Amino acid sequence: MARFVPITRNGAVIAFCFAVVLMSALPSRVAAAPEGQMNFAAHVTLAPRWLDPAETESAITPFMVLYGIHDALVKPMPSGLTTPSLAESWTMSKDNLSYEFLLRGNIKFHNGDPVTADDVKFSFERYHGGAAKLLKERVKEVRVIDPRRVRFVLKEPWPDFLTFYGTTATGAGWIVPKKYVEKVGDAGFQKAPIGAGPYRFVSVNPGIELVLEAFEGYWRKVPSVKRVVLKSVPDETTRAAALKRGEVDVAYFLNGPIAEDVRRTAGLKLMAVRDPAHPPRARGLRAHLGERLHPRGGLAGGGAGPEPDPRLPLRRSSGGSAPQEVAAGRQRPVQIATPTRSAACRRRSSAVASGAARDAASARYTQS
Questions:
Q1: How far apart are CA 174 and CA 196, in angstroms?
Q2: Are 299 and 292 in contact (CB under 8 A)?
Q3: Half-sphere exposure of residue 106, counting CA atoms within 13 Å on the CB side?
Q4: Would the N or C end of the chain have less CB density within 10 A of its end CB?
């Protein structure tokens, strides 16, 4: 059977097609049990700190993990740069000095604890990653109004508050369970993180692989793929070889001759490329994390510079420029872009149904 191939955009690869490849915008009324496994070959070395939102640096790469294990009040999704997630809505005061978020009801962390306003406040206060100093200089206080309502009070009007809190500019808006972190400590949390995302942590071999399993209690939609394995394979020749041998289902960031070889290989199909004739999109538009479904089927992602930045899919132009970068993978018998939920995805065959492939890439697992 043919294999499917996601792509890269504007100079780098998708941050991670690794978890729900695109969950529907609304929770499914009839959720099939997750099945099968998908293996991903990433071009980066996995860093343990990416498991903790509090340590998110000012780069896109950590979000390929965050979108799988954790969830945010508001985050970039295919439907918008600041899409309501754990927060079902928010309001800004007339004087522009406060933002109040209303949490969804009955949302839970992987250990069964409810997600509350206390967790939101705690997550913000312990955040010490990229732009932490700027955020905390601008935010006067975080007030817990009730278990579902939390208010951020600013020192002065700041139009960019949601740009920093509700996008991938920082990890401050990604919520962790206060009680659990206080019990195990920061070091313990990094070894066994608990989040509110579509996939729960199973194990990590630092620098080698990360294993996640579907969280059937996820509020948005139950993932279709039961287990996702992200392997760190820095050498692109090795990534391509693993793909051809059927050891991985998706491989990212392949360049030049290797990309062309993938294009010529039976059963492999390029889903997106970087066309050097077209300049990168403006950085102001690059906030979506993780992969997106390509309008014609398949995963799309990428970004500018050395860090992956999976935003809007880059379509191949009609020109004859050779692809500079590609990501490749197994093609499924059903196009990934179709809305059909499906059967199991198998590790060494192309029999991964569209629904499984979509949700497997749930780590930006997008859920829109």
A1: 9
A2: yes
A3: 4
A4: N
pLDDT on residue 268:
81
CA distance 224 to 283: 33
Joined tokens for residue 208? 């080698």
Indicate the length of the chain as a whole number: 368
Q: What is the set of domains in the chain, with CATH numbers?
A: 35-69+197-360 (3.40.190.10), 82-183 (3.90.76.10)
Residues 361, 59: Cα–Cα separation, whole Å? 20
Alpha carbon 136 to its chain's center: 25
Look at residue 168 and tell me whether its pLDDT is greater than 70: yes
Give Cα separations from 272 to 12, 172, 243, 296 (angstroms).
12, 31, 17, 10
Distance CA 16, CA 183 (A): 30
Integer Cα distance of 178 and 120 in angstroms = 9
Element (H, E) at 64: helix 63-69
Enumerate long-range contacts of 133-138, CB under 8 Å, 24 or more apart: 134/164, 135/164, 135/165, 135/170, 135/172
Instruction: Write out the two tokens for 36.
Output: 């099968």
Output Rg (C-alpha) for the chain, integer angstroms: 20
Who contacts 107 (Cβ-Cβ below 8 Å, separation ≥6)?
Answer: 86, 114, 115, 196, 219
Q: How far apart are CA 326 and CA 321, in angstroms?
A: 13
- State the DSSP code for 48: G
Strands 250-255 and 35-42, how do they pair? parallel
- pLDDT of residue 336 exceeding 50: no
Secondary structure class of 335 (helix, strand, coil): coil
Q: The tokens 């939609």 sit on which residue? A: 221
Please write the tens of the pLDDT for every residue from 275-297.
444 444 323 222 222 233 222 22
Residue 352: pLDDT over 80: no
Q: What is the pTM of this model?
A: 0.72
